Amino acid sequence: MSATEELLQDHVFIRRLQRVIEKCYSLLYEGKDVPFGDLIRISNMIEQFVDQFHHGKEENGYFPETENNVHYSDEIRKFVIEHEFGRRIAKRVRIHLEDFLQGKDAREPLARYLKTYSVFILDHTTKEDRLFTDVKEHRSLSADEEKDLKKEFERMKHECMRKSGDFVAVLKELETADWAR
After folding, report:
1. Separation between Cα atoms, residue 137 and residue 122, nearest integer Å
2. For residue 67, which of 59, 58, 76 has the smallest C-alpha distance?
3. Global pTM?
4. Residue 174 to residue 169: CA distance in whole angstroms
5. Residue 136 class from Cβ within 10 Å (0-12 exposed, 13-18 middle, 19+ buried)?
6. Rounded mean pLDDT of 27-32?
């Protein structure tokens, strides 16, 4: 699997997380409970997997490699701006989650920001998928560039898992939780 294909696969994983987030904010809007531990794990997945790991791979590896292609430079600039927008939403999710965990009346703003993040994921990954597919089809990265990126991605994956654990297992647990069905 190439680095480009790996990023596309990350998007499949992130959209699975999006469906969990969607179920979560729907329940919160209905006044139903989601276990605090699962709310924390969702927020951690947003901050650590989506932002630090996935967006990190894009911003620190993939985008610098593809940015030299004039055809992609404007799109990449927009994606980096969108990443910052996603970080700001994630920060609001964390703020309202902490308030909610402390017993404050933060159910609605937590649900609202989770919904906003869910919409962000769908919109953003769809646009990036088009770029990645175009890069792949036009072989815009050389075999050596893809190989170097894969090595860097693997290093980042090990670092992320060392710090944060197995995100695949966490997502599977969230997807199969009673409240998420």
Report:
1. 22
2. 76
3. 0.94
4. 9
5. middle
6. 97
In this structure, what DSSP letter does residue 105 have?
S
Distance CA 7, CA 4 (A): 5
- Provide the terminal-to-terminal Cα distance of the chain, rounded to the nearest Å: 32
Range of lowest pLDDT (87-91, 115-119, 155-159, 174-178):
155-159
User: Are the beta carbons of 17 and 124 closer than 8 angstroms?
Assistant: no
Average pLDDT over residues 67-73: 73
Report the domain count for the chain.
1
| Structural domain span for residue 40 | 3-180
What are 28's two structure tokens?
């919160």
CA dihedral 111, 113, 118, 121 (to 10 degrees): -170
CB neighbours of residue 43 within 10 Å: 20
Measured between alpha carbons, how far is 167 from 49 in angstroms, rounded to an integer? 7
What is the CATH number for 54? 1.20.120.520
Query: Closest Cα partner for 16 from 173, 178, 131, 179?
Result: 173
Structure tokens at 158: 């090990």
Q: CA nearest 160: which of 55, 18, 66, 40?
A: 55
